[in-house]
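Input structure tokens:
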């Protein structure tokens, strides 16, 4: 059976998750050389006016629009997303380009009232330095776009360590970005990609020349990166795992809720950081919700994602299938009732499974962990406070949702004593965020915020300046320092 990662010394073998066939082989890159070149590029790029930097991102966005289909096909082939989801991921990159271009004229600081006459306080944002980006397999392009397009307009070069499980799509995107760099005559070292395994990522994290390490992946990886970056007092931005819950209350529109739950739980074969993994259903509607969901899970079409009508493609590899099967047997041992979840034979060596729905207590040990596969744990609750406590009881804090038509329930969920996640939705599933808002989670989900809103500040350094135009020299806090006294 093909397994990821493929790590013979200098060559990475890239396989398609659809059928396990070899797509290509790729030479491992030289991380130190890429960092050296990018550090040099920073010296001039930081002085280019931000709107001119935005013009480069604008061209990258145009080319991504032109090559949308090609890039989506590469995503599909690498990791087995359906065409619609792969196109959606490229659209997310284009949306980020549009957002970053606008931002390139809005990297604004503040003017703050001074306590001293004739003085002014200002805050200015300057480029930070080299940004290292480590990405996970499941969003092989979008996470680069969240980071790299903001980093570029903020005045920083980027060195990218893509997932070793999705290299061809990363290289296809990189080629598009480089076409724009070439057309506009910029330094090619502004954007580089270094193919490699975890070791290449670790080298990026440890290098003191990298001002910001933005790492997306498992919580295990995030702990290692955070430790390495903190040891050199660098800056890290972590987007890690999730163990996301949704609460269905008695007032919920059940048709809407079932659609939201199904997309969030089984879309992308349960391989999103925001995938719905825990469902908390009020006891009064449990008997209506669970049989309907079980039937949907049993009927949803799993298979070759290139075929129309297929909604669930393969898992990334057979290691993921084993992890899923092991979680399901643990769930049985812990009193769970499992519906579905069996491995399916489909295309060649592809790793296909039927999504699983597991009826189990919300506090069972197996429910507390993220397993990167389509397993939805369903539990009944009696009162909303208990459901919110269960939502918050896991170590992760990425995404959450409430399905309700009761305003008070929705507001409780969103209140400071409600969901503790970075994303808290009402009548929308846990996955499928737009780029306009800041994306990320707290606790073991890493604490980072990327994409929209004011996430750009992570890629810049803030300078506070006091400017004295008065001719006198009053000191702050009324301090007197009179050289003529005594
Ligand atoms: P992973 O942690 O195995 O790998 C992610 C990346 O980190 C890869 O490029 C890998 O080579 C690199 N890496 C691994 N160990 C490293 C180390 N010690 N130092 C530096 N780099 C290292 O994750 P995966 O299997 O590719 O992706 C699935 C995980 O990613 C899930 O936990 C999912 O929830 C998470 N994820 C989170 C987000 C988010 O925005 N919060 C988005 C996508 C995926």
């Amino acid at each position: 059976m093909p397994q990821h990662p493929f790590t013979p010394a200098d060559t990475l073998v890239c396989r398609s998750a659809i059928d396990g066939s070899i797509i290509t082989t790729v030479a491992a890159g030289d991380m130190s050389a890429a960092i050296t070149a990018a550090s040099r590029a920073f010296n001039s790029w930081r002085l280019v006016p931000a709107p001119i930097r935005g013009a480069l991102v604008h061209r990258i966005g145009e080319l991504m629009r032109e090559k949308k289909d090609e890039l989506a096909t590469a995503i599909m082939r690498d990791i087995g997303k359906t065409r619609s989801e792969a196109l959606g991921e490229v659209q997310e990159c284009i949306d980020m380009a549009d957002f970053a271009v606008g931002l390139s004229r809005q990297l604004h600081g503040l003017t703050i009232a001074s306590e001293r006459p004739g003085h002014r306080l200002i805050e200015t944002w300057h480029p930070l330095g080299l940004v290292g980006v480590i990405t996970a397999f499941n969003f092989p392009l979008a996470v680069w776009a969240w980071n790299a397009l903001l980093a570029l307009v903020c005045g920083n070069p980027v060195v990218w360590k893509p997932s070793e499980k999705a290299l061809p799509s990363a290289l296809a995107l990189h080629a598009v970005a480089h076409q724009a760099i070439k057309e506009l005559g910029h330094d090619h070292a502004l954007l580089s990609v270094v193919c490699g395994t975890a070791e290449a990522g670790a080298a990026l994290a440890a290098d003191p020349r990298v001002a910001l390490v933005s790492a997306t992946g498992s919580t295990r990886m995030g702990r290692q990166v955070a430790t390495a970056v903190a040891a050199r007092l660098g800056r890290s931005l972590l987007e890690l795992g999730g163990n996301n819950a949704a609460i269905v209350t008695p007032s919920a529109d059940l048709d809407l809720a079932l659609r939201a739950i199904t997309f969030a739980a089984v879309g992308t074969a349960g391989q999103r950081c925001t995938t719905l993994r825990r469902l908390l259903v009020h006891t009064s509607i449990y008997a209506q919700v669970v049989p309907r969901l079980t039937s949907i899970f049993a009927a949803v079409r799993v298979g070759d994602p290139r075929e129309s009508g297929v909604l669930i493609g393969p898992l990334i590899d057979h290691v993921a299938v084993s992890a899923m099967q092991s979680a399901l047997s643990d769930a049985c041992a812990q009193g769970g009732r499992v519906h579905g979840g069996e491995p399916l034979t489909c295309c060649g060596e592809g790793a296909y499974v039927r999504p699983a729905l597991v009826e189990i207590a919300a506090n069972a040990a197996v429910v507390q962990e993220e397993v990167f596969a389509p397993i939805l744990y369903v539990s009944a609750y009696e009162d909303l406070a208990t459901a919110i406590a269960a939502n918050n009881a896991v170590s992760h804090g990425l995404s959450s949702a409430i399905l309700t038509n009761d305003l008070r329930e929705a507001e409780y969920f969103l209140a400071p004593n409600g969901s503790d996640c970075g994303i808290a939705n009402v009548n929308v599933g846990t996955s499928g965020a737009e780029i306009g808002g800041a994306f990320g989670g707290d606790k073991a989900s890493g604490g980072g915020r990327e994409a929209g809103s004011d996430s750009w500040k992570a890629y810049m350094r803030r300078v506070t300046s006091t400017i004295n135009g008065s001719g006198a020299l009053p000191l702050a806090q009324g301090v007197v320092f009179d050289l003529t006294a005594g």
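Residues 1-8 have pLDDT under 50 and may be disordered. The first strand starts at residue 11 and ends at 15.
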